[in-house]
Amino acid sequence: MKTQVAIIGAGPSGLLLGQLLHLQGIETVILERKTPEYVLSRIRAGVLEQGLVDLLREAKVADRMDREGLVHEGTAFSFNNQLHRIDFKKYADGQTVMVYGQTEVTQDLMEARKATGGITIYEAEDVKLHDFYTDKPRVTFVKDGETVELECDYIAGCDGFHGVSRQSVPADQIQTFERVYPFGWLGILSRTPPVDEELIYASHERGFALCSQRNANLSRYYVQVSLDDKIEDWSDERFWDELKARLPEDVAARLVTGPSIEKSIAPLRSFVTEPMTYGRLFLVGDAAHIVPPTGAKGLNLAASDVSTLYRILTKVFKEGRADLTAKYSEIALRRIWKAERFSWWMTSMLHKFSDDAFGKRMQLAELEYYTTSEAGLRNIAENYVGLPYEPIE
Predict the structure, then answer these.
(1) Catalytically annotated residues
(2) Preceding amide of 293 cis, omega within 30
(3) Contact residues for 68 (Cβ-Cβ < 8 A; gap 6+)
(4) Total domains, the chain
(5) Residue 278: strand pairing partners
(6) pLDDT in tens, 307-332
(7) Model pTM score
(8) Range of the domain at 334
């Protein structure tokens, strides 16, 4: 087999890159080790930055998002039994975010790729990357018991934190930065109306909580828990009681509860790989970086990587600008580290780390400053809706 760009991973970043390149007439083959059903079963975040919303429209896959997605013009921080709203439109120059599930984004991209006849090979086993430091990279994989070789010009590693792409890089060529947080998020999905029209981030002496949503009848809620906690320790009743205890009384009073349809505990970490380019291999999204979900940046950071790489590769194939490939890592990392900072800051300000009285006072002072100062409100708003994508010149 031959193609121009081999894409490893059929999650939203791999599919979005494939769709954008297709619209420019650039051939791609996507390899995915799981089934389509498994990929769609992964429950992930659903807050889309303005930049990702615009990119999905550019990719011509935004019709359903524009019909069914929920535009949010703000969010709220809760502390001291009160809500404090951050007005995105006011403090981020009219920009907003879109609440639209990652599963829905993935499904839209899958359908678009099927409609265009793009090649996606699911259940590709034993994927291996070869010769990416040369001008003739290759990918081999096993499908239905047969080994297949895919020749390509470039490889995009969009296969996540545990994928083969980053693991294929020689250890002496890669540097990683990591912070593991001493708690996790217990999250549930329930077929209940959201407690509020917008997201609520709650800081409480019992720990952090988040009220999120997927649509008008599907809610996503989280509470901070110990890493030692087990799912079986948390009945639905215990979860709802704990969530109510961490919210302002008036918000808790209007919370509609119901049976959970999905429940999981996720650890939190910050992680960055440098560089993100290795010869003709580019790392994209979770293959190169992880953020704690507090800032709603995971999928959005992957999208900004995709935007950067897609624009570079378009110039490479259409204008012969092969020199631009050396700039991918530098450009992507500038935005990544700013998003890492915001996610780390949100996590540090809103979660319970210890019973240290001084630390609690510092968190409270931060919250009070950032929710009452024009400069503080603008800082939160412009980072939450997403910093601008850097142009490729």
Answers:
(1) 72, 201, 293, 297, 384
(2) no
(3) 100, 104, 215
(4) 1
(5) 281
(6) 999 999 999 999 999 999 999 999 99
(7) 0.94
(8) 5-71+96-177+268-353
